[in-house]
């Protein structure tokens, strides 16, 4: 395959690993390298990646840095939250949902630059290799994919550092850089490796970068109001702004009150279990609020069907099937359910807790005080319940008369 690769687009962070990959691609494939760096709210300055790529021989016109924050939230995070998606009951899919967007941009740049292949820095043990490659092959099946971690023999930190030194790649550590394997974007920060490889070990206190320790959170609660339009967050405390700005504001509020830390062991798609720690402050608030507004606007059976389908939908995202017929089918169903999910939710934030204290929808609420009141009413005949119960018990009655025991 190597002789067929003339140009490759690399998902490039500017860090040590992807800088080594950049040089390795140039040497092993003797090809032109195009770099792509995505800003999805990871909170790092991205211009140093441009300088690093230039220093490694990449042409100026072959360096792409894109701000994708609003697209990330509007077209990926929000659609996922319409489904209330959680993987294995806890994980809010912060890394998983970012991969299809990065893949889409990689493929678009490959098409634009007439590249033969794309390349990524995911290892052969993780989920990201699956997510990147399934997405790329769905979007452009003619592209080749180069996964250096599955090809090279640089399978230890010592070998990587030796390769970097040999080729003059800067190995100095960024100030404040975490020793953990991290992934950050507007939705979350994840941590893996080191002490976390022992599922019995408590994470070190200084590992957490975003969410305040409960001991340091305010001693007074804070009430906020979120407004939804067709299932998507549209305003916080009456202020409308862009999708990215709204999520950033929720992150700020959640982090302040110690909301969104998570320590789990999850099942990777490739078969092994993995322990990860996550910070998802804004997403945790958004999920709680979205379910609250759905509670008064969604039909009962529609809501229950959504809950039945959600684990499948979440697994599709976790396993890398964002660009698949089945995810698109489920998304169409989910989006149809959100037409009437409009209204406002009041929440109280305090010491890691999110408490729903009110919800209202001016035009789309299915909550009827006339029917559910404990006081006297003129719309509901309580005698109707007797026939309803007896019809639902009819199979029990017939079976019991035939001697069946339950």
Automatic annotation (TrEMBL):
L-aspartate binds at residues 123, 127-128. Residues 180-396 form the Arginosuccinate synthase C-terminal domain. It comes from the Bacteria. Its EC number is 6.3.4.5. GO terms for biological process: argininosuccinate metabolic process; L-arginine biosynthetic process; urea cycle. Residues 7-169 form the Arginosuccinate synthase-like N-terminal domain. It is found in: Cytoplasm. Keywords: Amino-acid biosynthesis, Arginine biosynthesis, ATP-binding, Cytoplasm, Ligase, Nucleotide-binding. One of its GO terms (cellular component) is cytoplasm. ATP binds at residues 11-19, 38, 121. It is an enzyme of class 6 (ligase). The keyword Transport does not apply. L-citrulline binds at residues 91, 96, 127, 131, 181, 190, 266, 278. GO terms for molecular function: argininosuccinate synthase activity; ATP binding. It catalyses: L-citrulline + L-aspartate + ATP = 2-(N(omega)-L-arginino)succinate + AMP + diphosphate + H(+). Pfam families: Arginosuc_syn_C, Arginosuc_synth. InterPro entries: Arginosuc_syn_C (IPR048268), Arginosuc_syn_N (IPR048267), Arginosuc_synth (IPR001518), Arginosuc_synth_CS (IPR018223), Arginosuc_synth_type_1_subfam (IPR023434), AS_cat/multimer_dom_body (IPR024074), Rossmann-like_a/b/a_fold (IPR014729). Belongs to the argininosuccinate synthase family. Type 1 subfamily. Homotetramer. PANTHER family: ARGININOSUCCINATE SYNTHASE (PTHR11587:SF2). This is Argininosuccinate synthase. It comes from Campylobacter volucris. The lineage of its organism: Bacteria, Pseudomonadati, Campylobacterota, Epsilonproteobacteria, Campylobacterales.
């Amino acid at each position: 395959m190597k002789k067929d690769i003339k140009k490759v687009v690399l998902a490039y962070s500017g860090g040590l690993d992807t800088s080594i990959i950049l040089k390795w691609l140039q040497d092993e494939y003797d090809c032109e390298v195009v770099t792509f760096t995505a800003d999805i709210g990871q909170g790092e300055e991205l211009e140093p990646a441009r300088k690093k790529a230039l220093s490694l021989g990449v042409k100026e016109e072959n360096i792409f840095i894109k701000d994708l924050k609003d697209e990330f939230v509007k077209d990926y995070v929000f659609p996922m939250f319409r489904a209330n998606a959680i993987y294995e009951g806890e994980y809010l899919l912060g890394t998983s949902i970012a991969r299809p967007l990065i893949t889409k941009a990689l493929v678009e740049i490959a098409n634009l630059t007439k590249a033969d292949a794309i390349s990524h820095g995911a290892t052969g043990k993780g989920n990201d290799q699956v997510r990147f490659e399934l997405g790329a092959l769905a979007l452009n099946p003619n592209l080749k994919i180069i996964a250096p971690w599955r090809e090279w023999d640089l399978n230890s930190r010592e070998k990587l550092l030796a390769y970097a030194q040999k080729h003059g790649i800067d190995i100095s550590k960024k100030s404040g850089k975490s020793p953990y394997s991290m992934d950050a974007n507007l939705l979350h920060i994840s941590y893996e490796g080191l002490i976390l490889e022992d599922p019995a070990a408590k994470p070190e206190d200084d590992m957490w970068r975003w969410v305040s320790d409960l001991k340091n959170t305010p001693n007074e609660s804070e009430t906020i109001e979120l407004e939804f339009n067709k299932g998507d967050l549209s305003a916080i405390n009456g202020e409308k702004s862009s999708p990215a700005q709204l999520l950033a504001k929720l992150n700020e509020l959640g982090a302040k009150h110690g909301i969104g830390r998570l320590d789990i062991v999850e099942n990777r798609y490739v078969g092994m279990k993995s322990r990860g720690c996550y910070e998802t402050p804004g997403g945790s608030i958004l999920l709680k609020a979205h379910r609250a507004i759905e509670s008064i606007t969604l039909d009962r059976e529609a809501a229950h069907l959504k809950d039945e389908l959600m684990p499948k939908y979440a697994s599709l995202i976790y396993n890398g099937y964002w660009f698949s017929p089945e995810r698109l089918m489920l998304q169409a169903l989910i989006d149809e359910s959100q037409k009437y999910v409009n209204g406002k939710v009041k929440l109280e934030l305090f010491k890691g807790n999110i408490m729903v204290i009110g919800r209202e929808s001016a035009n789309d609420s299915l909550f009827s005080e006339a029917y559910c009141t404990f006081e006297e009413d003129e719309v509901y005949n309580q005698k109707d319940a007797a026939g309803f119960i007896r019809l639902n018990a009819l199979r029990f009655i017939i079976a019991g008369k035939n001697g069946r025991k339950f």
